[in-house]
Amino acid sequence: MPEPVYQADVVIVGAGVAGLAAAHRLTSAGVSTAVLEAAHCVGGRMSTEKVDGFRLDRIGQLLSTSYPELGLTPGLDTLVLRPFAPGVLVHSEGRHHRASPPPAGGGAGGARGALNAVRALASAPLTSSTPRAGLGAAGARAALSRATGSRTAVSRPAAPLGSAVDQARLAAALARIAATPVERLLARPESPARHALTDRGLPARTVDGFLRPLLAALLCDPELTTSSRCADLALHAFARGRLCLPEGGAEVLPELLARALPPDTVHTGVRVTSVSTTSVTTADHGELRCRSVLLATDAHAAAELLPGLRVPGFHPVTVVHHTTDEPPSTGASLLLDADRDGPVSHTAVVSLVDPSRAPAGRALISSTVLGTPPDDVDGAVRAHLARLHGTSTTRWETLAVHHTARAVPAMRPPHDLRRTVRLLAGLYVCGDHRDTSTVQGALHSGTRAAKAVLADLGAGPLHAAEPLPRAA
């Protein structure tokens, strides 16, 4: 009996970054691959709207220069990352406070330096007319400044980071988490992040004034219901790298991946209605035969094609974009709200981070609201931004308000950060809902799925592929 001729060895449903990353791994291994996307462009939730020369991200998840998959995924070698100013700027009680991670790479040296500062500050008098051996108070303050990157004076309690000793303890904790291997972080006991922060003995002022707003921004989770393991991974990335944005907008990352694939690999405007281990049925382009199917859609779309597939909860995100002639004085920093007295979680003058996102002479301010937005979201956001940036916002022009109800999959405990991507031989699933709800997690999930497909296909000769039906 003659063997069937397949139109592709593998059909990937969904052209988000997870599916595109998997396609790169498969095509690099010589596996003929077709990526089918229902929308008329690639990227999924990583999309960017163009308005009068501005590039406005719909969700705008933060990236880190320390994400391993950004350097490992084929097709991203030309990706340009635009970093924020080092650390973050925290707004508390009407003032701005700079908070930075340990020196690049963290490590035991950073932790030792911060711990030495703790011991010296604990033993040194606040004022002394007689020089002391060792660090002394002045030396301890200098060591603290190097360890934390803080520009706040340490001779008095510094809201929102706490006292000098509190800041040194925070720096030591960040240095330790930067130096801890990922597998050890994943083996830690698991609880909601808000409980874990309290249980680890850090002062409440440090938790509420810095770690809570930072993690809320990184995880898109204002109540910190996320698994403590996922929170540790977020802090690990923060402590080892720089927060950043892709130059040109979020859509650039999936577009780079799609362009770097072999011609005619990606087919947009093709809606899949059913799947099996050996075929995919589409609404308008018939049936495509294959040897394996990889679902790389969001969790809801995947569950529609495979009833019974786990669907997590989601965090809603609203991004409000404003423009003005004169940028606020907060510069290229990510500005966090520690007071929780308004709807904005974090905000930034993104045109100072990535000038390609705004026309010359215009400032683009992008602000993120987590959870359910208020009824008059623009008015409430404007009032809050006036306090956060310390400037009038009455003349700011609103460019867009993007609300995404299912923006980021929730990672509540117990959360399996390596949820299986192989459902059975010939049927696989990937996406940030199978890993961590980050770009790193989506890319890594795609890589894991491609490896599982290749393992099942084996090293034998692959079937020749027929031309696919024409698609938009």
From TrEMBL:
Top-rank taxon, per record: Bacteria
Coiled coil: none
Annotated Amine oxidase domain residues: 17-454
PANTHER family: AMINE OXIDASE
Protein name per its UniProtKB record: NAD(P)/FAD-dependent oxidoreductase
Source organism of this protein record: Streptomyces lannensis
